[in-house]
Design a protein that fits this description.
Layout lengths: L3 E5 L3 E3 L1 H13 L3 E6 L3 E4 L4 E3 L2 E2 L10 E4 L12 H12 L4 E4 L3 H6 L7 E2 L7 H8 L3 E2 L5 E4 L2 E4 L5 H15 L1
Parallel strand pairs: 1-3, 1-7, 2-4, 3-6, 7-8, 8-12, 9-10
Antiparallel strand pairs: 4-5, 11-12
Helix pairs in contact: 1-5
Length: 175
């Protein structure tokens, strides 16, 4: 059976390249990619439109090997979203790696996933480092990709390729 990766998109203003590049790498490596969001349609920052396969509420964790949250300013819509938080917690509970890129790791900080861990994320505004310290994580925003246990964080569009490659290595080590 083909392994599947679930990519989580914001309903709007996700970072197009942080979706398209990892998705291409995942598919090229034999993974099936499905998308989910809080809405049926997602619109990227630069206008790329995705008809999502699932709503967050429809996701069955057992169907997937891992979950990858696409960044961009829109990803912050999930900071207070308990449904999204519980979904990512379910992946961790089932020993399935999770990932987030750019602004999206701020969700992991807010949800308490990075307490006591090292992490990276978009930090041009200093907000990632500030949040990391507030939530008990060690910020390494200069690093493109950081893996700590079952959690991968990446710092932005320039890390799209590397995050995909490192995430697939992480998946192989847990699956």
């Amino acid at each position: 059976m083909k392994k599947k990766i679930l990519m989580i998109l914001a309903s709007e203003k996700f970072r197009d390249i942080e979706y398209l590049v990892p998705k291409a790498f995942f598919e090229q490596s034999g993974f099936e990619v499905r998308t989910a969001s809080s809405t049926k349609k997602s619109i990227g920052r630069f206008g790329y439109t995705v008809d999502n396969d699932l709503l967050l509420s429809e996701v069955q964790v057992s169907d997937f090997s891992g979950i990858y949250m696409v960044g961009g300013g829109g990803s912050l819509q999930y900071l207070e979203n308990r449904e999204a938080q519980k979904l990512f917690e379910s992946f961790l509970d089932q020993n399935k790696p999770i990932a987030a890129i750019c602004a999206a790791p701020r969700n992991f900080l807010s949800w308490g996933f990075l307490n006591g861990k090292i992490a990276t994320g978009f930090d041009a505004d200093g907000e990632f480092s500030e949040m990391a310290l507030k939530y008990g994580a060690e910020p390494l925003p200069q690093e493109a990709v950081v893996v700590d246990g079952m959690i991968l964080t990446a710092n932005g569009p320039e890390a799209a390729e590397q995050s995909a490659i490192e995430y697939m290595k992480l998946l192989k080590s847990y699956n």
